[in-house]
Design goal:
87% helix, 30 residues, 1 helix, mainly alpha, single chain, SAP domain-containing protein
């Protein structure tokens, strides 16, 4: 069972990668 810190880090990484993908989509639309 992952610790709270590990879970937060995983959520942060997935959130960051999601935001990066959104930015890439926005840039590709220009």
């Amino acid at each position: 069972m992952p610790s709270a810190e590990g879970n937060a880090a995983t959520q942060g990484a997935s959130y960051a990668s999601m935001k990066v993908q959104e930015l890439k989509d926005l840039l590709s639309q220009r």
